[in-house]
From TrEMBL:
Lineage of origin: Bacteria, Bacillati, Actinomycetota, Actinomycetes, Kitasatosporales
Enzyme Commission number(s) from the entry: 3.1.4.-
Protein name: HD-GYP domain-containing protein
Superkingdom: Bacteria
UniProt entry keywords in alphabetical sequence: Hydrolase, Membrane, Transmembrane, Transmembrane helix
Length: 435
């Protein structure tokens, strides 16, 4: 967001006013102000480290404050860390005020829920497992406030429907915030124990180690994505007529894999397989890829080497797993008439059978320099006709079912005006039955 819309700014102002209302009772609150200052300084330090090193937010200290302090005092804890945090994008003070107000409201809500359920007494008495229920309710309140406010600012700043902006935010954030809440509860219990605040700070050490491991995983995953993106961009630059084809084949492969009930890690690998299936075109002369007329037999043989070129390119990329076999064998046919090795039936790796169907489907529903796109229903009918000889019937059926549920919107892949592409036909409930 380079420019924040006026309605989003007004929303931020309203959230800031709400946070100030939560702080109004402070003059009448009896709280250990040294503890408020210590927790605020601790959170500010952890926040700086988390944002600069791990690109995330560190919640255990905030939740510990909600468990230890009266709600208005607890709402003070995130303010210094949020107001003086590093902001890369425009309108830094508006963003800082937004973040400070959002966290203050979330901590206040968590503290109110925790105190209303008697959580303070359970923490003071180190009364387990009775301390868990108020803490769990407080974590839910904390998570709910954050997701509601995040969805609201997303809807206003990005002009997105509220339902779409809120979709999935709460479930995705609940697990990580729940782990932070458990660490915050451990901090609060140790803080109130005879060992005091020093023992509570020791909880941050294993949390920091686990956070570092998690950040390393995400960095590695980001590096994988960057590797794939670079290869796909190289193919798109070389073969401009099929720009975007790789991403759509990856999407269709993922739809087939999910319909077949594969686990998430394998679905991701098959998405990679679909995206990289044509990476071997980097080894094919550009004049052949962009030739408008029919290919000679010699030229066709050169192009049919691209699966082997692709396998050589990705062979050393270990995280691709079975995607490498899909790159090599996605042009094999069940009847043995495919290339490069003429494999038969089950000799063809399952990943290659998935990508073969996804590749053919997108090729038929995309406009190329030499023909117009087919309607989705016609492409599905053709896949069904060739099932058993060229394509695996199981993969074809999975694609049909997935498209029946979610539909498909083919895009223009050639450098032609969009009005040359016929509108996407709705996918029938039983696709392919009307030939």
């Amino acid at each position: 967001m380079e420019a924040i819309p006026a309605r989003a700014r007004a929303y931020v102002v309203c959230v800031v006013l709400g946070a100030l209302l939560c702080l109004l009772p402070l003059p009448t609150v009896h709280a250990p102000w040294w503890a408020v200052a210590l927790l605020a300084a601790l959170y500010a330090g952890c926040e700086q480290i988390a944002r600069r090193r791990f690109a995330g937010t560190f919640y255990p200290v905030l939740l510990a404050a909600a468990f230890l302090l009266p709600p208005p005092a607890a709402a003070l804890v995130p303010l210094p860390g949020a107001l003086f945090s590093h902001v890369d994008e425009g309108s830094p003070w508006l963003r800082r005020c937004w973040r400070a107000a959002q966290l203050a409201l979330a901590v206040w809500a968590a503290g109110r829920v925790h105190w209303a359920l008697g959580g303070r007494n359970a923490v003071v008495a180190s009364d387990f497992p009775y301390a868990l229920l108020p803490a769990l309710a407080a974590v839910l309140a904390f998570c709910l406030v954050l997701t509601v406010l995040d969805g609201g600012i997303l809807a206003l700043a990005e002009r997105m429907p509220l339902r779409r902006a809120w979709r999935g935010l709460f479930p995705r954030s609940l697990a990580p915030i729940g782990v932070h809440g458990l660490a915050g509860l451990m901090m609060a219990v140790l803080w109130r124990s005879p060992y005091g605040p020093v023992a509570a700070l020791l909880v941050l050490l294993p949390m920091g180690v686990s956070w570092w491991v998690f950040a390393q995983y995400h960095r590695e995953h980001a590096a994988h994505q960057a590797t794939i993106r670079a290869l796909v961009q190289a193919v798109d630059i070389k073969d401009g007529y099929t720009r975007g084809h790789s991403e759509r084949v990856g999407q269709a492969s993922m739809m087939i894999a999910r319909q077949l009930g594969m686990d998430d890690s394998r679905v991701e690998v098959l998405r990679f397989a679909g995206i990289l299936h044509d990476v071997g075109k980097l080894g094919v002369p550009t004049r052949l890829l962009r030739k408008d007329g029919p290919l000679t037999p010699e030229e066709r043989r050169v192009i049919e080497l691209h699966p082997e070129y692709g396998h050589e390119i990705v062979r050393g990329i270990g995280f691709l797993g079975e995607a490498r076999a899909a790159v090599l064998h996605h042009h094999e046919r069940l009847d043995g008439s495919g290339y490069p090795y003429g494999l038969l039936g089950s000799q063809i790796p399952e990943s290659a059978r998935v990508v073969a169907v996804a590749d053919a489907f997108d090729a038929m529903t995309s406009t190329r320099s030499y023909r117009r796109a087919r309607p989705v229903s016609a492409a599905l009918a053709e896949l069904e006709r060739c099932a058993g000889a060229q394509f695996d019937p199981r993969m074809v059926g999975a694609l049909m079912l997935a498209l029946g549920k979610y539909g498909w919107r083919p895009a223009v892949t050639a450098d032609e005006p969009p009005d040359l592409v016929p509108p996407a036909a709705p996918v029938p409930s039983r696709p392919g039955v009307h030939r």
